[in-house]
Amino acid sequence: MTGLQDRLTPAQVEEFGREMDAIRQRVVAGLGKEDVDYIQNVIKTQRGLEVLGRGLMYVPPAWPLAVAALSVSKILDNMEIGHNVMHGQYDWTRDPALSSQRFEWDNVAPGENWRHSHNYIHHTYTNIVDKDRDVGYGILRIDPAQKWHPYYLGNPVYAFFLAFMFEWGVMLHDLEFDRIVRGERKWSEFKEVRARMVRKAARQVGKDYVLFPLLTGPFAPMTFAGNLTANVVRNVWAFSVIFCGHFPADVESFSEEETEDESRGQWYLRQILGSANITGGRLFHIMSGNLSHQIEHHLFPDIPARRYPQIAGEVRAICEKYGLPYNTGPLHKQLFSVAKKLVKFALPDSTRPRRTEPTTLEPELDAA
């Protein structure tokens, strides 16, 4: 953990917050037809790929193409459409099909559960240990402030299986098993959460592993395998993008004490320090749901994600102005640093949280 209050003077923090607010206000004021056209085109592309993939399942020699089309369709639905629409990024359109409260994505995690654990818990308490449940997802030790236990020796193994079953991990995350085991919550408290999980999982399993395979008749085993493969591809991709945005080297965590009575400027500052970006081309950003701009997403979670590349340069320039880090790098670099942390914090010699004093910086800014 790093001392959050040591980064900037109170006056600088407030000025920093005003500059971030100004970016937000300008982007929101400019939202319009281009943003609607963009998301509608992505939805059309996603649906077209799904139809193509389902259709090619009837042509056994085209099985690899069917799986590829279906995999991309599921990635777009999960990342660029589902995640972003359910964040409320298009609520301003008043289009029921783009309503954050009505939208349901193509995976086993119920939208209603996810909106609470992700939109509210994670984005309110980003990287606050013991508040943000996305720090380790209740499964992994990814930060030195998490007390070591022999269970964590399996860190790399747990992460490997979580990657392949990520949608199921996201779903089960809402049951808070770790807190139930510690006696902090009761199983009975999650009755409605469990009911939503069972309904959604039943629909997804029935669709991908019963209905669509049966519809292809003698090709049912290949269709079953194709749907399973597409889901795994989507899971591994989503895991990689999300972990690279939250857990690579130099991403910081915070204590509840240092974030008490947090101002708007301090909240923005925490988002900068607790996030990381992934560099890449336009297609890469689309396939990541623009979560390759995780810093901008944490700053402005309800702004359409297509806007993040447009403001990334400005956000980075402001960080440089205040002497703040702007954590970014290619996918392989960020993913490798995540892997190293998973191994490092699996071991008992990493048990003690160590606060590192930030380098004294002298940003060229009039604090007044």
UniProtKB/TrEMBL annotation:
Superkingdom of origin organism: Bacteria
Pfam families: FA_desaturase
GO biological process, one term: lipid metabolic process
UniProt GO MF annotations: oxidoreductase activity, acting on paired donors, with oxidation of a pair of donors resulting in the reduction of molecular oxygen to two molecules of water
Domain Fatty acid desaturase: 62-328
Annotated Gene Ontology cellular component terms: membrane
Region feature Disordered, mapped onto this chain: 349-368
Cited PANTHER family: ACYL-COA DELTA-9-DESATURASE, DESB, FATTY ACID DESATURASE 2
Protein name according to UniProt: Acyl-CoA desaturase
Species annotation: Amycolatopsis acidicola
Lineage: Bacteria, Bacillati, Actinomycetota, Actinomycetes, Pseudonocardiales
